[in-house]
Amino acid sequence: MIVGNVIPANLLLACTAYLVGTASPGPGNLAIMSVAASHGRKAALAFALGVVSGSMFWATVATLGVSAALVAWSRFVVAIRLFGGLYLLWLAFRSGRAALVADVATVSAAGRVETLRRLYSRGALLHLTNPKAVLVWVSIVALSSNGAGSTQAAVVPGCVVIGCLVFGGYALLFSMDSARRLYRRTRRAMEGCLAVVFGVAGIRLLASRG
Length: 210
Prior knowledge:
Blueprint (H helix, E strand, L loop, with lengths): L1 E2 L3 E2 H15 L3 H13 L1 H23 L2 H7 L1 H27 L3 H8 L4 H13 L2 H14 L5 H24 L3 H31 L3
Antiparallel strand pairs: 1-2
Helix pairs in contact: 1-8, 1-9, 2-3, 2-9, 2-10, 3-7, 3-8, 3-9, 5-10
């Protein structure tokens, strides 16, 4: 089936599923928002690019058909879930520690240690240690399949564009002066909320059996 004789329906469905998944609030978007508000635009874009790279790694693996075999291997899923849960708990610790610091200048001084390369690595690691990303991409590739493989070849570039727009949009939006001023006024409360969100997500990931 062709939508408007231009876009295959399977490709449209797969890209829509990816758009909904990336735009929905989650650890990746929350982390980008935090980096953008606390460290600025360049830092947030570097982090967002890392998130996109991690997502596209799993996209490539899924397109090659490797991820289906990996998902079937229970030890792989357990390992990813373990690393992902621990990484989320580490993010919770960082946010909690920032929430306990009363002086925003102290937090900003500590943030200068974060190079763009390091922020990129943190963003990539956040997505590479997310077992749900593997399962989501297996589903997206299945949705994009049209029997000939042409749609599967197009789904990755299409989702790269969507990922850059969504994650980059979060980075640009929350690095605006108004957003950064709001962050400075409510920094401790926001970092405390992030600590709770990351902590709960990490514990749930470690405790999950599926």
